[in-house]
Amino acid sequence: MGGKTLRLRRFFARDDGRLVLFPLDHGVSCGPIRGLEHMEAVMRYGIASGADGLVLHKGMMAYLERLPGRLPGIFMHLSASTQIGPSFHHKVLVGSVEEAIRRGADGVSIHVNLGDDAEPDMLKDLGRVGEACAQWHLPFLVMIYVRGVHAPKPVTDDAVAHAARVAAELGADIIKIPAPQHVESMERIVAGVPVPVVMAGGSKEADEQAFLKKIQQGLQAGFAGVAVGRNVFQHANPERFLKAIVALVHEGRAVEEVWNP
Q1: Annotated catalytic residue: which of 4, 45, 124, 145?
Q2: 91, 176, 214, 243: which is the annotated catalytic residue?
Q3: What is the pLDDT of residue 1?
Q4: Which of 45, 75, 165, 220 has its CA at a distance of 20 to 30 angstroms from the CA of residue 176?
């Protein structure tokens, strides 16, 4: 068993092949948005509610040193852009695999937007980070979207499938993509890649039951789990809602069982 396999087990600690990620990397792109004003408190309830992994930028990992008890797996996010700047969809590297190891991360993640003018640069970064992860035996989470001036509008399921395939072809160990519209597309994507695929939670949704049913649909189609940020930390009762998601993913319970507002 290699180092990467051991580190991946820290994320898939329940041995059911499923994963609930709690991404908290929004502060660089969006600033201290609602729900992320107090990061330590968010990390505490995320861990207490059963998240299998957190996604953090390097500076916020300092809070982890204050937290008691067992930590989940930690992905250090390596790419960034801001809403203030001229090219929001162009993600650039702001860290390295070696730095993530020094800071104590269990894996690294990057964000790639296909269809942006800077797509070639982001693909080059994807390849370089994947190479370093292979060298250092570090799990690699690739968050890949179809966004930018050259992206189809609306984004098609074929484009989402293409994005997932790019991530797999270039060395991802876990792929995060937005939910395709059709179940058949979900099944085709999962069948066409050799690594786990997790569904992105996306923007805050008003209909909680519909959001949870979308997660359930993805799980039934073969997705390994979810990566949910805003729909948890901007929820009126984030800890309870995250617990419901964890129960849905890991216990296989019906939506009506886990969430009855």
Answers
A1: 145
A2: 176
A3: 66
A4: 45
Nearest Cα to 100, choosing from 42, 39, 58?
A: 58
- pLDDT > 80? residue 162: yes
Q: Which residues contact 74 (CB under 8 A, 6 or more apart)?
A: 53, 54, 56, 61, 64, 104, 105, 106, 107
Name residue 259's amino acid: W
145 is catalytic: yes
- Sequence-distant (6+) residues with CB within 8 A of 105 are 61, 74, 75, 76, 138
Is-catalytic flag, 176?
A: yes
What phi, psi does 4 have (nearest 5°)?
-65, -40
Write out pLDDT tens, residues 178-213. 999 999 999 999 999 999 999 999 999 999 999 999
Question: Does this model's pTM top 0.85?
Answer: yes
State residue 125 phi and psi, 5-degree precision: -65, -40
The C-alpha atoms of residue 194 and residue 169 are separated, in whole angstroms, by 9
Which two tokens mark 166? 């790019």
In this prediction, residues 20-33 reach a mean pLDDT of: 97
Burial of 23: CB neighbours in 10 Å, binned 0-12, 13-18, 19+? buried
Token pair in block for residue 119: 């797509």
Contact 198, 214 (CB under 8 A): no
Fold of 3-258: TIM Barrel (3.20.20)
pLDDT band at 54 (very low <50, low <70, confident <90, very high): very high
